[in-house]
Write a structure and sequence with these properties.
By secondary structure, this protein is α+β, with helices and mostly antiparallel strands. The protein folds into two domains: 2-67 and 171-343, Aminopeptidase; 69-156, Beta Barrel (Elongation Factor Tu (Ef-tu), domain 3), CATH 2.40.30.40. It is 26% helix and 25% strand. The protein has nine helices and 17 strands. Strands 1-2-12-3-13-16-14-15 form an eight-stranded mixed β-sheet, sandwiched between helices. α1 runs antiparallel to α5 (173-187) and α5 (173-187) packs across α9. The longest helix is centred in the C-terminal third of the chain and has 21 residues, at 323-343. It starts with a helix and ends with a helix.
């Protein structure tokens, strides 16, 4: 299963090689051109089957391969590893989590001073990054250095599994769900009359750097970013703060901290969803940002929008999605692409 392989792959920002290899193998036979650019983006081009020799408009679908994680910055004499966050990591969720370090996936555990050795003022506060370390079982620095190097990435040791009624848990649904959807769309032999630029980007979690490079080069006529976005429909959150809800379908963005979505694209998405009976919801949170924030500012400007799979516990060691939301997002974006053949570009 592609989503299982992608979520269990190692892909901290700047170290997306494993994810890229999985995607390349999966989409190679379904596109006309495929390459990795200088920053690490994987770009797969599917050209139209029209016989007039024209490539038609250029439509970019983008999803980022990288995930939040950690990076090794120092090795103590004791063999314990100090680290720094890569992307938006909340230190409060790190204590006692199992992790994998580097390309060799060295197993480790994030540790901290035990509670019975803490002073009262320490016990009353959440751990800060300076008080955490990774224990890989090394007896000293020399032994640790044989297994780990400074700069090695660290990911959470979380396996994909289906839980409950049609739901799944894994790490890195942000944004392996988007990558899987684009890969599945490439595999559909629709014979579209436009050029599809499937772009799997790098370093989104540290500033959407890969998307900026790819969009500048590809110069699409419009772009849709596929994402995993925050679902806060859990106890302790007020209903008006849910942003999205699991099981209600893909989430469409009007605006966030990086983008005011092109409403012509959003309206077309809503129209095709209603015409085909695909459930959808509007993303209510206006914070955060995506690759679209960089893409829409490239050159003279690129019309862009975001379609997301609602995801609980985003940016943590384990997240939860509803598989129906994934399927409906795939169906909605596919229907949008079909509409371009039927009605032309929405912008």
């Amino acid at each position: 299963m592609l989503l299982k392989a992608l979520t269990e792959a190692f892909g901290v920002s700047g170290q997306e090689h494993e994810v890229r290899n999985i995607l390349r193998d999966h989409v190679r036979s379904h596109c006309d051109e495929i390459e990795t650019d200088s920053i690490g983006n994987l770009i797969a081009i599917k050209r139209p089957t029209a016989k007039d020799g024209k490539d038609g408009p250029k439509v970019m679908l983008a999803a980022h391969m990288d995930e939040i994680g950690l990076m090794i910055t120092y090795i103590e004499k004791s063999g314990m590893l100090r680290f720094y966050p890569v992307g938006g990591v909340d230190p409060r969720v790190l204590v006692s989590k199992q992790v994998l370090v580097g390309r060799d996936r060295i197993p480790g555990v994030i540790g901290a001073k035990p509670i019975h050795l803490q002073k009262r003022e320490e016990a009353d506060k959440p751990f800060e990054l300076e008080g955490l370390y990774i224990d890989i079982g090394a007896k000293d620095k020399d032994e640790a250095e044989k297994l780990v190097k400074l700069g090695d990435g660290v990911v959470f040791a979380t396996q994909y599994a289906e839980i409950g009624s049609g739901r799944a848990k894994a790490k890195a649904f942000d944004d392996r769900v988007g990558c899987a959807i684009i890969a599945e769309l490439l595999a559909q032999d629709k014979g579209w009359s436009f050029t599809l630029q499937a772009t799997f980007t790098v370093q989104e979690e540290v500033g959407a750097r890969g998307a900026q490079v790819a969009a500048y080069r590809l110069e699409p006529d419009l772009a849709i970013v596929l994402e995993g976005t925050t679902a806060s429909d859990v106890p302790g959150s007020k209903e008006h703060q849910y942003s999205t809800r699991l099981g209600r379908g893909p989430a469409l963005t009007r605006t966030d901290a990086s983008l005011v979505a092109d409403m012509r694209i959003v309206r077309r998405l809503m129209e095709v969803a209603e015409a085909r009976g695909i459930p959808f919801q509007m993303r209510e949170l206006t914070g955060g940002g995506t690759d679209a924030g960089r893409i829409h500012l490239i050159r003279e400007g690129i019309p862009a929008a975001v379609v997301s799979v609602p995801t609980r516990y985003i940016h943590s060691p384990v997240a939860v999605i509803d598989k129906k939301d994934f399927e409906h997002t795939l169906a909605l974006v596919g229907a949008f692409l079909d509409s371009i053949d039927e009605r032309g570009l929405p912008c």
